[in-house]
Amino acid sequence: MADGPARTLVDAVDLAPPGAEAVVGDEGRVTYGALRDRSTRLAADLVRRGLRPGDRLAVLLPNGVRWVVTALAAHRAGLTVVPLNTWYRAAELGHVLAEADVALVVTDRAVFGRDTVAELESAGFPRRPSDGVLLWGEGDDLPLAADPPPVELPGPGPTDVALILFTSGSTARPKPVPLEHGKLMANTREIARRLHLRPDDRIWLGAPMFFGYGCSNALPVAVGAGATLCLESRLDGDRSLAFIARERCTVYYGFGATTRLLLAAPTFADHDISSLRTGTTGFSAEEKRLVVDELGVERVCSVYGLSEAYGHSAMSDADDDREVRLHTSGTVLPTQELRICDPDGAVLPAGGTGEIELRGCVIDSYLGRADLDEGTFRPGGWMRTGDLGELDEHGRLRVVGRRKEMLKVKGINIAPVEVEDLLIAHPAVAEAYVVGVPGEDGDETMVAAVVASRPATDLPDALVAWIRERAASYKVPSRIELLATGEIPLTATGKVSKQLLRDELARRTR
């Protein structure tokens, strides 16, 4: 058992009270003592199979006990975990497995109805005789042929890589992001402080574990605090509400789409979810308001973060005023520094809008190829995020949008997020995305793609009037297109692809 604050995920599990519940979900329940025992047994088996410290183990499983036990076992064996997106198909899997140089994949024969073995074979895995696939069926205690004999487990150190996440913007292929144990635990400890987390808290995660929001945020936050992580294998409005109510979850981890899914559930009013006290959410003021006023999570925190910066970089406090939490992303965490710069790297004063740059608990570089770092890192350890924001006189961050997404319409710079916030505040709008498409005169034309929350007649005209009442006329889109949720294109990592959306909306003008 480690002394002082946990410096690795393994330390955190070993420091937690063994009788406290660690994980609960569709695959059952496990205490911290059982989590320690099962992950130790599986780690011994991984060592017996020939895996050595620094090797990469990929997890291709649904949210649940198996995912967490596998990750902790890999860490005890000194391995790095590569979370695999369960939405990926063969080509995407092949890219990630090759880029991360994965030696072993732990999965089930079928995940969400897909033959994962066949999918991995189509992806060209295993690539070499030393690689392999370890199948762990749902309901099995552990994927062991027999209990392995006790072995010396190397375990991780604070500077060892805990996770390799794959993240991408709207156009790039996913980039490998290496996250170290020590920075991971230090940063998530500060997140827990802003949440005012307690050991008896129960964290409900409304996202897959393979996203950074799960594996590099909710998991280490929960384990570091000795709290319970409540996981569902798949979200469903009515079922998820029943789960939250039954388990008396106290911490809400969900963004806009998750919030709207719960609020739209036919049985929403039938479930008592008043146990929810705090949590994290974003991004627009309206999405945050829905969590506070409609879900009733009165002390929810707003956040700003990215995978490369270990979860969150700026965050409000659970005790902050409502307006601070709705309209800013709070202040920078003590583990990081944040500045706003112009394109040349000059630091802007309070109130100036520019690119958000970070240092501290951030990656030093992407994994593998040096060309992935091009344009991202400045001297002095500063990382360029590509996001635009401004700091107020209290050091609170307001995010304006992505640098590459800024529009120039008739010579005027427009941040799409400002128009998106206006649109999503309309009661008939569930989602809104604003892009620029080429105009006839070479200038950009602002077009909005809107997903309606309920049937509405003449919604585009109503939205034009809505914006005109609330903003300058140049912020009114030239065109508003109604799309179904399934028509919004996504990147390989599940984010909305503004590039693909721009291409689709441009085609509709022809």
TrEMBL record:
<feature type="domain" description="AMP-dependent synthetase/ligase">
    <location>
        <begin position="17"/>
        <end position="361"/>
    </location>
</feature>
<protein>
    <submittedName>
        <fullName>Class I adenylate-forming enzyme family protein</fullName>
    </submittedName>
</protein>
<dbReference type="InterPro" id="IPR042099">
    <property type="entry name" value="ANL_N_sf"/>
</dbReference>
<dbReference type="Pfam" id="PF13193">
    <property type="entry name" value="AMP-binding_C"/>
</dbReference>
<feature type="domain" description="AMP-binding enzyme C-terminal">
    <location>
        <begin position="418"/>
        <end position="495"/>
    </location>
</feature>
<dbReference type="InterPro" id="IPR045851">
    <property type="entry name" value="AMP-bd_C_sf"/>
</dbReference>
<dbReference type="InterPro" id="IPR000873">
    <property type="entry name" value="AMP-dep_synth/lig_dom"/>
</dbReference>
<keyword id="KW-0436">Ligase</keyword>
<dbReference type="InterPro" id="IPR025110">
    <property type="entry name" value="AMP-bd_C"/>
</dbReference>
<comment type="similarity">
    <text>Belongs to the ATP-dependent AMP-binding enzyme family.</text>
</comment>
<dbReference type="Pfam" id="PF00501">
    <property type="entry name" value="AMP-binding"/>
</dbReference>
